[in-house]
Amino acid sequence: MIVQACINGARPRDFHPRLPLDAQAMANDAAACVAAGAAELHIHPRIDERETLAAVDATVLAVRRACPGTLIGVSTGAWIENDVERTRAAIGAWQELPDYASVNLSEVDAPGVMELLRQRGVGIEAGLATTADAERFVGLADHSRVLRILIEIDIQDLPAALDEADGIAAVLERAGVRRPILLHGVDATVWPFVVLAHRKRWSTRVGLEDGKTLADGSMARDNAEIVAAAVAMFQSAPAG
Question: Gene3D superfamilies, alphabetically (predicted)?
């Protein structure tokens, strides 16, 4: 069970005044999150504030220097390059490899991206947002060869979001999947899902990619404050 920090995602500059948008800002922010208790980092590298897989080398290097020994992950979201071949070419050109990368099973080329990451020695976080994603994932012959599974729900209605998460977990259970799970919500569901992850002995993630408020609804000062609050929740009571 860990708390991962997701420090920026695809959020625009005006989402939060402390949103890190360049390699050095991400490195500084990541170091603060690790100091606050984050065990791992999930980042979306950018050039001139635009997400691009071409920025992975410089960003991963800067974050690794600031956070030696901390696992660093990036996104491979299809929207970043908006082209299958450009996505594959960018991943194939990485020199400063991240420790892992997330792959959304809702995307057409997910199996191909997963295989390319394996060839490059990069761990895979398999992102499942729906039960259909989960069914597709367990249907892959090599689905057991992933670092972990992300159950990542962006439905804002909490009962519906909980039902979707339960449906995904049920698909994984029926298929006998035994990989670690990280559960996270977005905006309105961030903190209920932190609580649920703790209860189920799963990992979670928090940060400005997923939401900018604390559990009481107040605006967080920065990523480190959000991380510290989640870590405190994980440490305050026994899981299960």
Answer: Aldolase class I
